[in-house]
Hints:
Layout lengths: L2 H28 L5 H23 L10 H24 L5 H8 L2 H13 L5 H17 L12 H27 L6 H16 L13 H27 L2 H8 L2 H14 L14 H17 L15
Helix pairs in contact: 1-9, 1-11, 2-8, 2-9, 3-7, 3-8, 5-7, 5-10, 6-12, 10-12
Amino acid sequence: MSSHPARVGLLFITAAVMFWGIMPVALKLTVGVVDAVNLTWFRFGAAGLMLLVFQALAGGLASFKQVTKKQWGWLALAGVMLLANYLSFMVALRYLSPGPAQLSFQTSGVFLALGGFIMFGERLSRFQMGCFMALALGMLMFFNPYLRFDSAADGGDVLIGVLLIQLSVLCWCTSVLVQRQLAGVLSPTNILLVIYLLGALVLLPTCDFSVWQPLDSEMWSIVIASAIATLLAYACFAQGMKALPAGQVGAMLALTPIISFVCTDLLVHAGLWRDMLQAAELNLLSKLGIGVIVLAVMSVQLKPKKSLNSKRVTS
């Protein structure tokens, strides 16, 4: 892997992490007005329609003629897995508070690295494995004020919530790795086009359109912005996955919750939406955890192992 594609891939993943970090803030502002299912449907539907128009004008839809039945099946799997990721995470929030839920989801980096090894023969050096261990330690340090599971009814509820989060992680990683597998067949834009439209169609029968009537112009702006951010985040992520090993991508994703907390704090201190947002409880251990996470993420980018397979996924 040459250095130039790797740098470009890193820029794309950084952009995706920024969009995903800001996304929960926008969703938090609308969750009291629009339920998660309807909001997900809108985000998928709007992103899918935008991509459909763009690809139709650019003549990019012609490549679908070359897709085989088996590859259509892989596309469907990627779409269903991404939907399952969204829904299982939502259900898990009935058993866990957002802090522990976000912490549990950070195992996605390990799942992604393991999937990269199984599907693409990618390997991590011992040094990088040590970085993942430091990353886990940093996460525990950063989220220590939120590691309170006493809000659940009992230990059984906590276990159910954690298991649902891990199911969500598994579904998300499966979708990401299947998308990468298809990168040599379709462009990332066309892959996302199918996934978004499929997700919107699956969710359509469960939607209640009456929830959209009370929205004012400010809420509509936030909802539309979240749909655009969804499109840009996954588009950048898909491009980055073409150029970087899954293990490196997984480490970068660990920065997402930190960006969410920082954005929330900035808005609260600026006096915006204080009735809907609360500043993060960052004690000294949390701040030290941020330093550990940043160092671990930066270090895991060093000297990545080349794939065991000489055949690389191409665009």
